[in-house]
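The authors assume throughout that readers already know how a fold can be written as discrete tokens. The format is easy to grasp once an entry is in front of the reader. For illustration, here is how one protein appears when written out as sequence plus structure tokens:
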Amino acid sequence: MCGAINNVSDFPLLDPLLGLAGYSEAEIRSVLNKRECRPTDEVLALVPTRQGPRLMAATWWLKLDPNTLLPDTRWNTFNCRSGQILSSPLHQLAPKSFRAVVITDGFYEWQPRYSGGRLYSDLSAEEQQHLPKAQSKQRHWIHQPGELMLLGAMCKHWLDAQGNPKVSVGVITLPPHPAFLDVHAKSFPLVLRPDELNDWMNPRIGHAHFESLFKETEVRVDVNVQAINDAEFDLIPGEPPILRAPRV
């Protein structure tokens, strides 16, 4: 995932969610004033604290400069590859990483279109290894209609010069699903189910407990994938493809 996150400011369940979390709407309104959040912007995240999980505005870039607490752009840490969660030194470097959740009502991806209008799946194996020059890009909106999306993430807690808390996050990404290659051929975010939140947000449970999630290769929830106009966010007419989670 290397696109953008759609904000939840218009989501009908936002106010009850904030109330349950003990926050007034004004406390996090600053993070909800943008429809589209890009890496280095602030996003809405559920993070572990000594008082339990709390909703906070978080910088969408896990590694910050410890002196300025601005995104350390020497490394791209807005995403965290799932296969490296248990091995990357980044998550052990102070401040250590904890599991978190980025809350959104959908996310955006851009996928190139190649000569002749070809999609990624139309390319030969050799072309997929050495991509030809793109002629255009198509934006897609990936969402669960009527539901919040819970994106698994890693977070770090920081203190600024005045001792105020600051949080940074990186969204955990899985390998791309075969049915998703023409939407985004590089990765797919780890989407959590509501019944997984208690364990996911428990800092006493080690990351290794979730190793099977980090190796997931299936779509975990049903999602709509809709092509949209890149400038106006208008949906392009046509039935949205639906990626469905396997049924047990």
Observations:
- The first strand starts at residue 4 and ends at 6.
- The mean pLDDT is 84.
- The longest helix spans residues 14-20.
- Residues 153 and 171 are 4 Å apart (CA to CA).
